[in-house]
Design brief:
Blueprint: E1 23-30, E2 45-49, E3 52-61, H1 63-77, H2 81-94, H3 99-112, H4 115-128, H5 133-146, H6 149-162, H7 167-180, H8 184-197, H9 202-215
Parallel strand pairs: 1-3
Antiparallel strand pairs: 2-3
Helix pairs in contact: 1-2, 2-3, 3-4, 3-5, 4-5, 5-6, 5-7, 6-7, 7-8, 8-9
Length: 217
């Protein structure tokens, strides 16, 4: 069987072209005076191009909070997870109703191996704004690493219910069904859907061929 690799995703303020990665952007508007309470976001706004997705979240925060957030993002990009987590905790305390820093915090905890804190942070982000696929996709990977495969499947499926074109969750669901659940029809359907969304992914084409050969045995 050809190896499968989960589609990991790093949430940050600038769109970045990464292999099997998407980007989440947060529009944290600085203000010179005390910011008003953030208004709930009705739903995510998406931009998509050849480098991936950008999910936009708007919120008004003080300039120093935006600076801390940007610095934390840079730390995560450099894999300085301990420093990034400490700064993101400060951001989430100062902007408790903004979901993007909580998503980043959950991702940082996950990358550093603290799956329980990752789960808690991602769930908190979804309490603030459930209409975004990124934390569902990340939760799916957390659940998969915990061995909670049914929960992982439900989380990937929820990401796709929010945004059917979010092909990173589509790939992760296909891998989960293929490798961990032995649900070959689910795996094949989602590999094919992913391949249609990303036709230049030659590895995915090999996975589809491999799975079809196993299904037809």
């Amino acid at each position: 069987m050809l190896p499968r690799v989960e589609s990991e995703l790093l949430a940050h303020a600038r769109r970045t072209a990464l292999v099997l990665a998407a980007a989440v952007a947060v529009a944290l508007a600085g203000c010179a005076t005390a910011p008003p309470p953030p208004k709930p976001v009705a739903g995510p706004q998406f931009q998509q191009d050849e480098s991936g997705f950008t999910v936009l979240e708007g919120a008004h925060v003080a300039p120093e909070i935006r600076t801390d957030y940007d610095n934390a993002v840079r730390m995560l990009e450099q894999k300085q997870y301990d420093q990034g987590i400490a700064l993101l905790l400060k951001v989430t305390q100062n902007a408790p109703n903004v979901s993007a820093p909580l998503v980043d915090l959950g991702i940082a905890y996950s990358r550093s191996g603290d799956l329980d804190k990752a789960e808690a942070s991602l769930k908190r982000a979804l309490e603030i704004n459930a209409r975004q696929p990124v934390p569902y996709n990340e939760l799916g990977m957390v659940y998969r690493r915990k061995g909670q495969f049914a929960a992982a499947r439900a989380s990937y499926e929820q990401a796709l219910a929010v945004y059917p074109g979010f092909h990173f969750a589509r790939l992760n669901l296909a891998i989960l069904c293929d490798v961990y659940l032995a649900d070959l029809p689910c795996a094949l359907d989602n590999y094919v859907a992913y391949q249609q969304a990303v036709p230049d992914d030659k590895q995915a084409a090999m996975w589809v061929a491999d799975l079809r050969a196993r299904v037809n045995r």
